[in-house]
Input
Amino acid sequence: MIQESNTPLWKLDGAKPFIQIKNITKKFGEFTAVDNVSLDIYENELFCLLGGSGSGKSTLLRMLAGFETPTSGQILIDGVDMADIDPWDRPINMMFQSYALFPHMTVFKNIAFGLKRDKVPKKEITERVNAMLKMMQIEEFANRKPEQLSGGQRQRVALARALIKRPKLLLLDEPLGALDKKLREETQFELVNIQDELGVTFVVVTHDQEEAMTLATRIGVMGNGVISQVDEPRDVYEYPRSRFVAEFVGTINIFEGRVIDAQTDYVKIASKEACSKLFVNHSINCAPKQKVAVAVRPEKIKVSRKKPDLAYNCLYGKIIDLAYMGNLSIFRVKLESGKIVRVTLPNLVRENQNPLTWDDMIYLSWDNDSSVVLIS
Amino acid sequence: MTRDSRFLKFSAILGFIFLYAPIISLIVYSFNKSKLVTVWGGWSIKWYVELFNNQQIIDAAMVSLKVAFITATLSVILGVLAGYVLSRMGRFPGKMVVSGWITAPLIMPEVITGLSLLLLFVSMEKLLGWPSGRGITTVIIAHTTFCMAYVAVIVQSRLAQLDDSLEEAAMDLGAKPHSLFFLVTLPIISPAIISGWLLAFTLSLDDLVIASFVSGPGNSTLPMVIFSKIRFGVSPEVNALATIMILIVAIGVIAAMWQMRKKENVL
Output
């Protein structure tokens, strides 16, 4: 197969999606867990479904695995409709949040379970399981029971068990949720390497945006059973398309205001909250005087004691809170309107001769291309 | 704290004396040399020797063991099925009623269970010709009806604790529902099944009331023989027999508890 180098499949016209989710709805009684979701996921992707609890992300994953039947809609995997295919016949494996290791079996038997069900010859099972144990660096635990393993070791066993059948698609439900922070970071990169090496398509469900950022080729942000935005991690962070996405992913300052001038290459907004006119250098589809919101990330904001020579995007306020985090400092600045703005500054020097402190009056500003206008 | 703990110790000792003094005196008197039950005449094991020469008691013991063994096995099979259905059917209309029905034999007075089963067996014999007369078969059926309920409750509570994703993981890895049950569910709940079996065995061995209703001539269980002997005055032989039964039941209960403990450690 000839592929244009480095262009991801989802950017190519006419590329065939590996998973096609078409207008899927799932209702539990009156409650709609997943609401008319359509989504294409391509081969070799590491796709993250990011959402809070009750967002419908796990239900969507369980429908892919076959544990839930959609109320309406269609799921195609590699062009095959999954409607009448039982979980045990799907070319999919799943890694569970609780790992779901069989407590009465050794690590070896846990990993071999899937191959035995497929009646793979005994000799081949031993070879493949041993190779997998080696790859996951858990050879020494082969004869232990799951209860004798640490959280990180269990996580590896669960991953090994899910990968042993060489599935076309691996579903991971909060794969790093049960690990402590340090182990989590190591495992994140490992997971990406494994995915790269084996060329399996991964769909990961997580509530942790940092996890989604580091793992994903693309992120689908879910809330209330709907996918609000599907984009590459950078775009989800820098160009959120709605207030929900902007606020869910990372922290962001949002100023409400009204459009005073909208052209093809810029929008001017008057915001009482910001006590300033705001300028955004991208266009939106809006009417004059329409209510909109301008969103700026805390790290995009510049701080100065002197008034910068700017007609737009220039705010003035008092520092009411500051926190030194080591690599950066967080400031909370109260504007005249009472609005509190969050600013983060990197700590570039060890000792600042004239550090910003409580009750200092400062000017906040940002570049025209640093903010986004949100309509919904 | 020390004052409290002294009080606690005192109540514990009092409670245990209340519970076990009669049993201990029974065990001690089973080694009594004297023919009179209430008079101590020195240590001896002659009542045990006599007990093993009493064919009536040996026969009754064999009947009881046979009944208990088959009852426990049948109860486990039916009880596991019932417990599995109750915990895995999800919500369906009338679930409360169905689970109530299954556990009703637990609280039903034994006299009523015995009487109703007797009536059932008699009318079945008239209509169907089976079971012909009353004997071991009818006792087994009767014991299974109430022992099954205990097993069902134990298995259901074990299954309720079980992580659903274990069964889903097995399915996901290619196990069809029937093989999933035998490969994953059954081995994981096996401690509950073993303790259920032991409990059913002990309950069946102990039962007097229901067996009295549904047993026939020549098929008396051990408790029935003891009860009928006591009506003619307590003999030291019965003390010896009771001691042996206490031993068997104690072993059964301890084994069941040990299995439960082991199960708790697994998950």
